[in-house]
Prior knowledge:
By secondary structure, the protein is α/β, with parallel strands linked by helices.
Amino acid sequence: MKAIRFSQTGGPDVLKLEDVTLPPPGPGQVRVRHTAIGVNFIDTYHRSGLYKLPLPSGLGTEAAGVDAATGARVAYAGPIGAYADEANIPADKLVRIPEGVSDEVAAASLLKGMTAQYLLKRTFPVQKGQTILFHAAAGGVGLIACQWAKLLGATVIGTVGSDDKAALARANGCDHVLNTRSGDWAGAVREITKGEGVPVVYDSIGKDSWAGSLDCLSVRGMMVSFGNSSGAVPAFEPGMLSAKGSLYLTRPTLFHYTRDARELQETADDLFAVLLSGAVKVAVHQRFKLADARAAHEALHSRQTTGATILTP
């Protein structure tokens, strides 16, 4: 089989396509022949060393394909090593793909869509009539989450990193779109909310948006920091949270919300249901061959991608 591997951390150039011998599935494992592989920003954290992996390592956290033994259509999010033709996956990490959801959409949406699900419905359950702020609204998670938040009845303020992404964000659930690279976007949030601020900020940007995100929150608001695309959040004194309004801070991760097979399938089923309803749509805007994983990562870093990116074996 072919797989993307890296023996040292660094930029996209460390990614190499290699021939790998895949052993037979072990106890409790299923051989999955991939048809589509998801590309996510967390993959760049693993590659760069921000999130440590034992080296040499594979890469990739979600894919869709076929159970080699039964022919069933399955997808998974979690184990490292999805950037490959095939993989042996623990059976309790697999979810069933319903009719009407393509392998490409499943691979492009499972990790991002389940992230949106736990953020909006469990970390801070969004209520009808609330106004929320979601950063990176034109990104993979953002496009799904903003549509879903709109479905839940929220007024959605989305941020983007360039003016050309604003229209995409507006077309996918955002009532207001702000460019974090121009003007006082935190002040604009206060204006939109008539000085009140928002009860929750969903922030996957990290270092560059941290201070502004805190300034957007209402009294007892929640800062949901779930990514670091601009770098890690700087160290801070907890007293800052009380000074800004007795704020809450959480740093969640999907894998703590899908701890067993039941939680995993329920989370995926909730995602697939909104996809099948048509209320949330997933657009795959970038496609690369598995051998071109380096180019896919370069595209991510350029912040020129929108929507979902996949690799095909």
